[in-house]
Amino acid sequence: MALPKSKAKSGNLYACRECGDTTAKWSGKCLSCGTWDSLVEVTASSMEEDSQKRGLGDVGEALRLKQVETRKEPRTHTGMSEFDRVLGGGIVPGSLILIGGDPGIGKSTLLLQVATILSVADVPVLYVTGEESLAQLKMRAERLETPSPEMYVLSETNLDVIFKQCQQTRPGVLVIDSIQTIYKSDLPGSPGSMTQLKECTLALMVHAKTTGTAVFIVGHVTKDGVLAGPRMLEHMVDTVIYFEGERHNAYRILRAVKNRFGATNEIGVFEMASAGLIQVDNPSQVFVHNRGERDPGSVVSCTLEGTRPILVEVQALVSRSNYSMPQRVSMGLDSKRLTIILALLEKFAGINIGPQDVFVSLAGGFRVEETAVDLAIAAAVASNHLGRKCLANTLALGELGLNGELRTIPQADARVKEAMRLGFKTVILPKPMQGKVNVPGVELKFVKKLADAFEFIYQT
Known about the structure:
Blueprint: H1 5-10, E1 12-16, E2 22-23, E3 39-43, H2 44-52, H3 81-87, E4 96-101, H4 107-120, E5 125-129, H5 134-143, E6 152-155, H6 159-169, E7 173-177, H7 194-211, E8 214-220, H8 232-236, E9 239-244, E10 251-259, E11 267-273, E12 276-279, H9 283-287, E13 298-305, E14 308-320, E15 328-331, H10 335-348, E16 356-362, H11 374-386, E17 394-396, E18 399-400, E19 406-407, H12 412-421, E20 426-430, E21 443-447, H13 450-457
Parallel strand pairs: 4-8, 4-9, 5-6, 5-7, 7-8, 15-16, 17-20, 20-21
Antiparallel strand pairs: 1-2, 1-3, 9-10, 10-11, 11-12, 13-14, 14-16, 18-19
Helix pairs in contact: 10-11
């Protein structure tokens, strides 16, 4: 039974750390987002006081859109073209950028390198660390061979102190590492709590918009792969960037999932070395071992990340199962999509995988969400199952429909051009795209059905 409003306001409330929803009674599970053990106690009076502090300033008069004056401010280039690509062409003055990722993935390393490059280019930078001392920060900068005597550094967690330092140094770029360690002294809760996270991020947003300072904030990721703290943190910032990759893998992928000033799903590829992160200007060469004759179970395709076409190598292994229930394992691909493709192989190509285990992965730890690599997945599984090698310099593109037909894919021209740039001579495409794709120097094979594609992919 719900409590009366007067009683709920006079007592304490319980707020979810993930979604921010409040309830008058504690429970083990948030009823809004379904997260377990995420409710924390907050006072209703403090939430009302905090709500009065929000906003960019005094309420002004409403204007017609044509009355609003605008000025085009040039973006600030970071000196790292891969990072600029993800940001949409550089840093926008007054923007608030959130960078998330697993611990140790390279978030602090990337921002320290960027801050150093900017400070060398006479852009005032204030790097605030709440997780290490200034001596530790300098040791890390020296290890990365990127020390900059002109960069301002501050080891502080009190946001009011940070803003006072901003008034003195007037930075063009402010780095907060990390937002989970920052707190405001006039708010309840410890650093990292829902109230502190929301209000500190809001204060940083107001600071960015009113002063024109570009603010980078680092956010930790939970074991479930989401940003720690309320999800509304993502709605408050202008850009959300995730750092992806495996610790044992040298390559890291920087992916934009939200960007008010550029395209989403743009990616940048970096290699983690002893001296920090190194840009990978040609990711296709990283994710494709070679363009020549391939072993059974290996087929090359092309995916589109934002505006960038990237060649990927799909690898498949089909083996006898030792279990009553055959395994279907996919790495970097949607497991449900793999199940559908296996059913299509059996129904329309006469390839019965049956009781055998199937393992499919993308080389290099890459991950693909789109369906343009469906044909390559089917061809790789059939290739390994039948023991037939793929033809040299051949690329497979196409989405598979539930009737076994090949469906069109977006921006095929860009994909074919990327394949030609890396030396591929033949590209398999869906039949409906015939006449719509014309790239000289590449032999295009248009196929209508899944079974018909194999004669162009495999050796006789």
